[in-house]
Amino acid sequence: MGAFHSAPEDLHYRSLSEKTGFSLEQIKILHNRFKQLSHNDDVLRRDDLNTLPDLANNPIRSQIVAAFFDKRNFQKGAKGSVQEIGFEEFLIVMSYFRAPTEHISEEQREEIRRTKLRFLFNMHDTDNDGTITLEEYKHVVEELLSRSGSLGTETAKGIADAAMLEVASISVGRMVRKEIQEHEQDSAWREQMSGYKRMQRQHQKQLIALENKLKAEMDEHKLRLQKEVETQANNTYIELERLAKKQAVQFEKEIKALATEEKRIQQQILIQQKKELTTFMETQKKQYRLCRDRMKDEMNEDLNTPKEEKQERLSRHKDTMQRSQAEEEAQLLNQQRLIYERSCRALKRRSLIKKHEFEQEQIREELNKKKLQKEMEHALMIRQDESTQDLERRQLECLHRLRMELVRLQHHTELENQEEYNARRQRELHRKHALERRQQPRNLKVYSLPNSQSLEEALEMQIKKQFQDTCKVQNKQYKALRNHQLEVSPKSEHKALLKTLKEEQTRKLAVLAEQYEQSINDMMTSQALRLEAEQEAECQALKCQLQQEMELLDAYQCKTKAQAEAQHEHDMQKLEQKASLRRAHLEQKVEEELAALQKERTEKVKHLFERQERELESFDVESLRLGFGSLASFDFPKEDDR
Fold first, then answer.
1. Domain range for residue 520?
2. Which residues form the EF-hand domain (predicted)?
3. How far is residue 29's CA from residue 618's CA, in Å, rounded to a whole number?
4. Rg (Cα) of the chain, in Å, rounded?
């Protein structure tokens, strides 16, 4: 139970004022009274009210005390009781005793009256079963009469028994007020409308919850796709970096290999030239010895020439040969030097060409790698787009299934309520017809007021009056005939004559009563036939009305279902258009990126070829300037020639 705290006192007072209708000043006074009754405790117990002197002589003290602890007075639909209450519950119960204000509408006044009536009904419904039994009614009457002081206990019990019998003759064991029944019926209608509102709010909450769930799922899906794209981009960057490092290492190795090859060929050329020089020197030495020996032989054969002259001529010949050999050796060395320099230049040109070829191979590898990665990226984007489309379709189908299920539940509830309404209308009509048949007169005893006589009642009264008038006339005729017969007949025959006249009168009255009964029966038969025809017409009219209402409900439900299906088709078409447009943009983006990649490839290859062509052209121009001529067809010594 809620306790009343002083910290948020003003705010709590305003809330209680809106809930109970008491003013702030009245709430403060009642709060002081609550503290006084509960002995400054936060809760109020039954003993606190049972010991209250003001209720000591009240005949319905127990009902008043029980009303403060009855859950039905706190909230609608609750049952049972509690052992203690807080100030808020105390104030709610006290609000039932509050007089209504003057400036309220008639509907509000009627609602207050019904609420107070429900409170009084709950007060006397001690067993909490929704009805006031005869025993409960008898107990209330006994308590009220026995506490008055002017009546004894036995007298009070007798009056209570008589009142109970009177009520029993009216209500057949139970007393339920008409206002309570009307209030219950209105409550049922309000509960049904509240049920519709609750169902709509619940359906709306379910749709919102599902939409939020699907939105979270889509956000998670997009985040996962974004992570995949980022991972793909990171992998692409890492692979390109790795390829660049690998190509740099390979290029460095290739440069070193070309330098090594160049040195090897240069060494090979030097070795070959050294061999040629050695062979040339040996040949010169042989020629020198041959010439020297031949010269000596000629001089030895010439005996006339003096020895000094021979020596001088031999010395001149040696000098000439040595100068000639030195010139030839210098010429050979110069030729070898030119060949070596030209070979080195040609080697540099060949290394430059190989370096260019290696650069072309590397840039082709890099461009192919970029193309492959771009194709993988495009494949990932297409796969992601397809997965997004599948997820969107699944989510739309899930949302459509929930909507159709909610529509089905709503239609089922509407159909159940309509069937319940139809059954209730038919039961009410059946009870009405049964009541009309029970109220249809069965004998001559007619209770009616002159101002409210129906045609049947007037006809029955007319037949009854005619019967009574006829009976009076026959009685007069019987008396006149009896007097006349008694006057003209001897006294000894009077007894037999009176008996005969009495039998004749009885017979005529019986015939007259039979005629009266026949007239009443004929009238009742015609009235019953007319009543049955009217009731049958009412049944048919009600049946047609209920059938029309059922057809209208069915048409409305079919229209609602068709609208839901049309909405789903519209959403599906909209989704397909959105997916097609997104796919078209994606394909356009793929084409643009492929075109940009191809353009980049073409430009890079073009720039590379132009740079390499400029480098080779500059190298050839420098070679021509140095006097090496064209080196394109220069042949290098093979490795087997070493």
1. 464-585
2. 112-147
3. 112
4. 65
